[in-house]
Write a structure and sequence with these properties.
This protein is mainly beta. Helices cover 14% and strands 42% of the residues. It has one domain (29-226): Exo-inulinase, domain 1 (Jelly Rolls). The longest helix has 23 residues, at 2-24.
């Protein structure tokens, strides 16, 4: 009898833990899977190419690139989490994700100049965004989070790099209740806090090469957690 009661208690505890884990998996937000065919419809900015292969999305720079990026069609509010797996295809590849990308001020809209050529200056100096650089050893920097525009310094910076080319890594980037974080393969690399959150905006994934060498990556298994049902 005691053995049966213990077994039932262990089972109940296991169910409880799994239930809590499932509830908190998206931190109370709604989760949506972004299929590769849908990701291919995101707006391509800069000079580059996007294609799909074996249920993966390929994003790469052209020879005349100053940076290439994908921009979500959806506008997301302040609380948003993006998860995806990414593999840098060249040693020169720097991978960045941006959240809350918008024009400055209260608006969550985003206007892109007709002559935009992919340069980083637009995002650093003229547009609002949270800038998560996590695969940036080729730029001789460690992972950091920056709040643009015109940030004097990063919100938070890691003490070492965690990624290399040719390997898939699982990335989680999020903003929830003022907390801002970056995880790589389920390990929290960066965690900060912003008491004056940006209003929200679009999501962007950006690539840039180094020293004249082009950037390229593969992306798969993307989900976005947000207030949208």
């Amino acid at each position: 009898m005691r053995v049966q009661l213990m077994a039932l208690a262990i089972l109940a505890f296991s169910i409880s833990v799994n239930h809590v884990f499932c509830q908190n998996d998206c931190y109370g937000l709604y989760e949506k899977e972004i299929a590769i065919d849908e990701l291919k419809t995101w707006q391509l900015l800069g000079h580059g190419e996007v294609s799909s292969w074996a249920n993966q999305l390929s994003l790469k720079e052209s020879d005349d690139s100053k940076g290439v990026m994908l921009l979500s069609p959806e506008i997301y509010q302040q609380d948003v989490i993006i998860r995806y797996s990414v593999m840098a295809l060249t040693h020169a590849t720097v991978v960045v994700t941006m959240l809350s990308v918008s024009d400055t001020g209260k608006s969550t809209e985003l206007a892109i100049p007709d002559d935009y050529d992919g340069n980083i200056g637009l995002w650093y100096n003229e547009k609002e965004n949270y800038f998560f650089a996590f695969n940036n050893a080729p730029h001789n920097r460690t992972p950091f989070i920056r709040k643009n525009p015109n940030a004097e310094k990063a919100l938070v910076m890691a003490d070492r790099n965690h990624m290399q080319s040719g390997i898939y890594y699982r990335i989680e980037i999020g903003i929830k209740d003022g907390s801002i974080w970056l995880k790589i393969d389920d390990k929290e690399i960066l965690n900060g806090y912003d008491e004056k959150l940006l209003e929200g905006g679009r999501i962007a994934i950006r690539l840039r090469g180094t020293a004249g060498f082009k950037a390229g990556c593969l992306i798969k298994e993307m989900t976005i957690c947000s207030t949208k049902k």
